[in-house]
Fold these 3 entries.
Entry 1:
Amino acid sequence: MKPMVLSLAPLPAELVKALIMQTPDLPDFDVVSGNEMSREDLAQAFSRADVVMGDYTFKHRVSSDILTGVKAMKLIQQPSVGYQHIDVDACTARRIPVANTPGANTISVAEHTIAWGLSLLRNMYMAQQSMREGRWEQMEIKPAELAGKTWGIIGFGQIGRAVALRLKCFGLARILYSDIVRASDEVEEEYGVQFTTLKGLLGLSDVISLHAPLTDSTVNMIGSDELKALKPTAYLINVARGELVDENALAQALLEGRIAGAAVDVFSEEPVPPDNPLLRLSGQKVLLSPHVAGVSNEAAGRIINMATNNIARVLQGMEPLYVVNKI
């Protein structure tokens, strides 16, 4: 019986198979598209699948109920860095490896972060809106320079380091970072960063970007108390996870002018409902985007290739790469 790959991604099954077949010497296999299946049909498909490719839109949750009939699944491959919609504990209990695509979107997120920092400081949104409304406000826009400022990086993993590396050419006064694990002296020198506590970083930074993972300890790590610690001239950028920031507290801080502005790419609920407090702000420096920091054309190509190459490894009988749980 031919192996079966179940794809939850919104891609044609033929395309998924063609991408997997870029790896030579594969056994014959079928690809079944489950993106439009009901939960009941998906549960039946899961029971037959040898490999599952996850849904990068996070529409389809992989929870314990859908795994009930699984007997010998070899891999659930998520084609993204995030995998919060997958119940990893339930997969581990059934000895199903779960893999993601680490590092594939690092460049994209780092560039997005810096573009937003510059846009906030240069007040580009107000400049564009002013022009579109027929005004010529050279002296009212009041752009600021990044040179001489302090940038704080919360979370010094791959993306945090990529941001620091790209900031080195801007002539910053300093680049601070906060992480649960301090980097070595050699790494700090290589990236031109200084370690500090979260509290210290919040009080000293002109621009703060979030790159921490979502864990029990990082939920709402930026709440009302933390926002009060920021300078009134500071900007906050979140390209990590929406749940890291208390959105109501951030909206209130912006509304009251207690911080200069914010840029948010990720939200506690996605797609964002119309009652999200950040959508109701007007007149404040707030930039919003629909979780696109990591989905440049180039990053999307790297992600899908990493995912399908890993599926090909498993079809060849090899151990998968990038596994996030211990089996």
Note: The mean pLDDT is 96.
Entry 2:
Amino acid sequence: MTIVSAIRNRLVNEIGPDKFDVWFDRSVTWNLTGSTLYLYAPNSFSAERLKRIYQPKLRDILSYLSHSHLELSFQVASEQPAVQQHRDSTGQATLPQAEKISLAPATQSIATHRPTAGLLNLVIGQSNHIAVSAAKSMLDRPGTISPLFVHGPSGSGKSHLLQAIWNKFRSRVKAGRAVYLTAEQFTTHFLESLQGNGLPNFRRKHRDVDVLIIDDIEFFVGKQATMIEFHYTVDTLLRSGKQLIFSAKISPTEIHGLGSDLVARMASGLVCGVEAPDFGMRLEIAHQYCQHLGITVDSGVINMLVERVYPDARHIQGAINRVSVLQQLTGELLSYEDADRQLADLFNRPQRNIRISDIEKAVCEVFGVDRKQLKSTAKAKSISQPRMLAMWLARKYTRAAYSEIGDYFGKRAHNTVISAQQRVTDWIETESLVTIPHGQCRVTDALRRCEAQFGT
């Protein structure tokens, strides 16, 4: 094994293949020349970002592999010598970089009704890793997990994931055998087919396929004729062992009006929820979009956008587009102060920016517990109830994802936060009582006392 291969393999083992795919994709090349290991990124922005985040990790790996004498240099690809083979210290070429294993779209060709979808590599994190893992398994064995149903709020990446899957399948099956469309398009095409003799052709197009992907399933509600046609289409494809993939904002059982039989079909495969991307994922999406546009943006400005713009990819992309235009007009990087002023209308500015730490402080004050107890493993009601209320308030007043809230309150799993949110919601509906230092009160009253502490 060459030196470069050993370094790369060690890095994959330490950070995982998914993260390696994100940061060291095929646009990053490695070249060992003499006593210096060069990493070439597509632009100065990416090179600086790799250096800032991964230089310490790579130095540790070099030391572990007894190559601490090597120097690291992060450069722009345009500065790379004409011969771009990776060479070790003996001058022998290494193996070419391994092919990516992520679900990044195989082609930039995208559906015309989604002009911005598919432009970014799929960013994988706590909020979508289960759905992505299911998609990878489905790609390896089409039809074994069918239908795959992905649900989550707007901007959580459902359509992006579905289109990434679609592009992968299109490269594997015959033309026209992998179909992607929205429920609205399915409805429109069906109604058009009823005019004249178009119905047989419509059914052939949507039933004689290997893969059928339909986005925004909830659009079918209230459209009885379309739902019946869709129901028969689903049954036909399931009997044939074909792959079905659907998405909606909520799970199948929560979509009222689809009918119990159709809901049962939707839920018979695998149902996966996705959340809005957390801070780290949003930051990576922002960096990737800057790279796609070929622009450099001050890191402080990017962090501001990710933290203060509404937390989904579309809003972040829109803010970066604004930054790009402003920088073109001035011919220079947008400063933090100018961005704060020029992008003010894009920021959701509450009367007071409430942080999780503010909520933690308020809950501790109202319930007479300290912060260590709130983050501990204690299961006593006097601790667990305030902890759950704090998680519920964090979801209400901050943009933090379930995973971020769980990490803050004692490194808990995101499922724990989801459960806490549901428990508190149930308490509110049933007007349950909780214990505070001076007696008992309704949950709603306790929440109001907490809210008063952070000035809302």
Note: The chain has a mean pLDDT of 81.
Entry 3:
Amino acid sequence: MSSKPKVAISKVSDIDSMQAVELAVREAVALACDFTALCKDKHVILKPNVYCPSPAPTTTDPRVIASLIRAAKAAGARRVTVAEGRSISTALFRKNTSTTEACFEAIGMKQAALENGADIVYLENDEFLNPSNPDALVLKHPSIPRTILEAEVLINVPVLKNHSLTLTTLGIKNLHGTISDADKLFGHDYTRIPQKLVDILHYNKPDLTVIDGVRGQEGDHADMGKVVDMGIIISGADIVAVDAVAESAIGFDNLQIDTTRLAHEQGFGVGDINEIEVVGTPVADIRRVFEKPDIEITEERFPGIKICAGDYCKGCEYYVRRGIDRLVDLDALDPNDPVTLVYGKDPSVDPNTEGKVILLGDCAMESQSVKRLRDKLWLTGRLKTVYCCPPMEFRMRALELAGD
């Protein structure tokens, strides 16, 4: 018998059909594991990706969750709960949909859960426990909701999509929603976030991961990503192996993604595609190379923007670029009245810079080279800053900050 972890791929014959989605979900979980043994007489927790109020495939398709609820109940689950916690950006900057419940209502997830007999836990409202693990390298003392930490059976249900900061957001990245808001913000720079995400596996490692690939999203995970009709469900008990197969399916090289490579190296699962048994539909039959994330920032590409950048990481680059994208989409850039963006560590900056200036991120704010400009902007009533690392507020409030 093969000792390789098993990952199943099932095709969805008609992506607009609820019945076809459910058939593919049931086939995938049945091929991947003994689903009845997993669920029978257990309290099953389903963790989708609903970090914001945007519909699938930015978030998990409610039809996939509905299918899993019904499958778990048919397998004899004692109780099924759908549990999720929205992102920091959503909590802070989406005024009308700042809670997970509001996000669930906006995309139809609340209806899908309740109508199919599941209950819901909005994780920001849960009781948080404080485990620790000396083997964790970044997230040594997290706060984790009791619902997740004490789950009898945890089924992780991410979406098949790219992410501009981590290249993909699949099974491991989806676990970011299972920690406290403070922990979500902590270590959110590019140098630490891959290891931080892997560290979560010390505290809550899913029993099954089911990737919603009914429709995928290329280019980015947010509302700027492009929808791809993939028509697949990917499932497996080894979260690292599931991510590896999904990454191969959308055109990444073996162990190219940091979270998968680190989890593989640290013994959380098998991330080498050559050591994984794929059952059901072969990867070659459904493989499509997704468009890669684009976070380039240049003055030539964006007339109306002046760049004053020091040393910066992808975290800063991502949020600055997405804020610029928002300004472009809203036709808010004027080459005759440019906005100067100052970010990164120790940028070379003219303290007499005129016009609109926005100081972005902790690295810039703490740099001596920026101090004189910052003081002048304050004295002249022009000081506009975005604190934190990374400066995620700029992505959400770019128009307001760039205005007069």
Note: The first helix runs from residue 18 to 32.
